[in-house]
Amino acid sequence: MKCQKIIIDTDPGIDDAMAIFFAGLSDKLDLVAMTSVFGNVTLDIATRNAMVLAEILKQKIPVSRGFSKPLVQIPNPVSDYVHGEEGFGDIPAREPKSKELSIPAHEYICDLINANVGEIILCPVGPLTNIAMALRHDPTIAAKVKSIVIMGGGVFSGGNVTEYAEANIWNDPHAADEVFAADWEVTVIGLDVTQKVICSHSEFSELSRNVPIIGSFLEQATEFYIRFYKEAVGIDGCQMHDPITVIATIYPDLFTYEYHPIEVCLESPRIGETIICKNKKRRPAKVAVDVDIDAVKKIFFDTIKTGF
User: Fold this and answer.
1) Is 253 a catalytic residue?
2) What CATH number does the domain containing 57 carry?
3) Domains in the chain: how many in total?
4) What's the distance, CA 213 to chain centroid?
5) One digit per residue, pLDDT tens: the chain, 308 residues?
6) 12 cis-preceded (ω within 30 degrees of 0)
7) Residue of 15, 106, 192, 241 marked catalytic
8) Annotated catalytic residue: which of 11, 15, 177, 242?
9) Which parts of the chain are beta strand (E)?
10) 36: Cβ–Cβ under 8 A, 6 or more apart, which residues?
């Protein structure tokens, strides 16, 4: 089976690290590039962390720097209370040996899609600023990308940073609305399913015993993450937002979908809310509404266990 080419647009982030490790270790994915964006951390930290994760994987994955703030609104504070000041919980900052690319992320995304027409799945797991700017830079990519699989929103479940809004959409609602308005194949892996997939500290401890380098990194990082979930949400584990989004790119049959055109509320107090659009001219998105929890967890941990 030919590997599926994927670009991950990311703001690493603990669950971003899980997603990137999964993509890098999966024999079904070819992680051709990462592009960084503000969100869980600042853009500088996100760019650095993406390069660090590639080095932990011992892979030469190009990293291109994206946008540091939203298209329109004043930036929200970074979520260091969820991911830690440096993005990986209590793990200290580490400087990568590699260098980021000089080309801006939105241009690099367009170049890669144009060079691989119909072959790339674009998988943003942070705010959608880079993606909206890529569409502005070259609108033809909408017809050339294989699909876009987004971690964001909560069409039926509500939000996780406000009553209405999920964090990635809330951090740049205007960009998100532009992405949902484009005429391309969009799959939405939002809180409707990601909140259902919860992993425990013991599962990461077992991973650490099996694959000491990657497993120990995830065990240490998720201690902080799980502590946040226990204090803020009352669950003894962490939700797997970003990794199951990457899993959905190659295992779509593990999800149940509905098809709805989506728009984003751009006015307070519901800013960032993802809602079913009344304008039926907008192309319906493939919205995940249920997930095979045991299957996606098994695929995630089995894949990470092939690491080192």
Assistant:
1) no
2) 3.90.245.10
3) 1
4) 22
5) 579 999 999 999 999 999 999 999 999 999 999 999 999 999 999 999 999 999 999 999 999 999 999 999 999 999 999 999 999 999 999 999 999 999 999 999 999 999 999 999 999 999 999 999 999 999 999 999 999 999 999 999 999 999 999 999 999 999 999 999 999 999 999 999 999 999 999 999 999 999 999 999 999 999 999 999 999 999 999 999 999 999 999 999 999 999 999 999 999 999 999 999 988 889 999 999 999 999 999 999 999 999 99
6) no
7) 241
8) 11
9) 4-10, 29-36, 63-65, 120-124, 147-151, 186-189, 198-199, 238-239, 255-260, 262-264, 274-276, 285-291
10) 9, 10, 11, 12, 43, 46, 47, 50, 63, 64, 65, 66, 100, 105
137 an active-site residue? no
Q: Is the pTM of this model over 0.90?
A: yes
Residue range(s) defining the domain that contains residue 30: 4-304
